[in-house]
């Protein structure tokens, strides 16, 4: 498993095509007082384009849905792991897939967490707790 970057104020890249999930995650970050900036892309191709652009700082964490349009999440994750400048970025999978094969593959690719949708507050708390450097001054 890769080691998370120790960037408590780093950008979080959310790769999610479901606008309801995006809204829920934004609200939950607010409730949990996560102050890291959140950048959202709605498909795998845009995730790769964002991370490949040297004008963008690399994300400190990627929250990745496996089932997104254009380029699927596993291909994004494989691409990240093949790039020396990106391979150590922690990735947390947030997906509707409950397939054991998907979980094993994600683990093989070094994800820091695997959370199944719908993401309930408890699941999001588990995810946040798995990445302890996220800025969360007071967790309720």
Q: What this model shows, in words?
A:
With 140 residues, the chain is an alpha/beta fold. The chain has a single domain (12-130), classed as Response regulator (Rossmann fold, 3-Layer(aba) Sandwich), CATH 3.40.50. It is built from five helices and five strands, in the order E-H-E-H-E-H-E-H-E-H. A five-stranded parallel beta sheet has the order 2-1-3-4-5, with helices on both faces. Helix 4 links the parallel strand 4 and strand 5 (113-116). The chain is globular and about 35 Å long. The chain starts with 11 loop residues before the first strand and ends in a 10-residue tail after the last helix. The relative contact order is 0.22. The model is unreliable at 1-7 and 135-140 (pLDDT under 50).
Question: Concise description?
Answer:
By secondary structure, the protein is α/β, with parallel strands linked by helices. The chain has helices at residues 19-31, 44-52, 73-82, 100-108, 121-130, and strands at residues 12-15, 38-41, 61-64, 91-95, 113-116. 29% of the residues are buried.
Task: Provide key terms for this protein.
single chain, 140 residues, alpha/beta, Rossmann fold, 5-stranded parallel beta sheet, 5 strands, 36% helix, 15% strand, globular, disordered N terminus, disordered C terminus
């Amino acid at each position: 498993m890769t080691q998370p970057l120790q960037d408590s104020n780093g950008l979080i890249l959310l790769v999610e095509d479901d606008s309801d999930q995006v809204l829920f995650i934004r609200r939950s970050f607010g409730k949990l007082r996560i102050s890291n900036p959140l950048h959202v892309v709605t498909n795998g191709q845009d995730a790769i384009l964002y991370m490949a652009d040297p004008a963008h700082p690399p994300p400190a964490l990627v929250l990745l849905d496996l089932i997104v349009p254009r380029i699927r999440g596993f291909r994004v994750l494989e691409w990240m792991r093949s790039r020396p400048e990106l391979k150590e970025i922690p990735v947390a999978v947030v997906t509707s897939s409950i397939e054991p094969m998907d979980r094993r593959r994600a683990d093989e690719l070094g994800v820091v967490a695997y959370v199944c949708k719908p993401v309930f507050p408890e699941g999001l708390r588990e995810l946040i707790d798995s990445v302890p450097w996220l800025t969360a001054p007071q967790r309720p």
